[in-house]
Write a structure and sequence with these properties.
With 158 residues, this protein is mainly alpha-helical. The protein has helices spanning 25-36, 62-79, 89-102, 107-116, 133-144, 147-153; strands at residues 21-23, 44-46, 83-84, 118-120, 126-128. The protein is built from 6 helices and 5 strands.
């Protein structure tokens, strides 16, 4: 009888002392993982602070930021799971650039982030990831997650 511990599709492989690293949503997952697995020595969260809160935009008027973030959330709700023809991409980028510029997010950085968040089918149609019901459930789950309290629970390796 064999007890293989090798990797399989859809399974995690135990790697002692591994440090999870994630960007955006992946950063939030890395923090959650480290807190749920105390043997994890650390986690790296690159820009995974949820969908944005006014206090994260130091130096900008909180009311202005609140309005712009509401626009971003509105766009995300409309775009969730929506298929976009390639010709519509320029319009989507243009509208989001205006919001990004208002929040002092560099244009090239925002464009690249949006491009990476799109999936493309063989017929050149695109959609904002994730698709389907997950696209509508994920934002609500992100808004409910109190990352500040998670960060307060995180420990520094000693």
């Amino acid at each position: 009888m064999s007890t293989s511990t090798g990797p399989t599709v859809g399974a995690f492989v135990a790697v002692p002392h591994a440090v999870p690293v994630g960007h955006s949503l992946g950063g939030m997952v890395a923090v959650r993982y480290a807190l749920d697995h105390p043997e994890t020595p650390a986690a790296v969260n690159l820009d995974g602070d949820g969908r944005g809160r006014p206090e994260q935009y130091v130096g900008l008027d909180p009311e202005y930021v609140t309005q712009r973030l509401a626009e971003v959330r509105g766009f995300a709700a409309q775009a969730a799971g929506r298929v976009l023809p390639a010709r519509d991409m320029a319009a989507v980028l243009g509208a989001q650039r205006a919001v990004a510029e208002g929040l002092d997010i560099p244009r090239d950085l925002f464009d690249e982030g949006l491009r990476r968040s799109l999936a493309q089918r063989t017929d050149s149609m695109r959609w904002l990831r994730p698709e389907g019901e997950s696209a509508h459930q994920m934002p609500a789950a992100m808004d409910e997650l109190d990352l500040s309290s998670l960060y307060r629970r995180a420990r520094s390796p000693g």
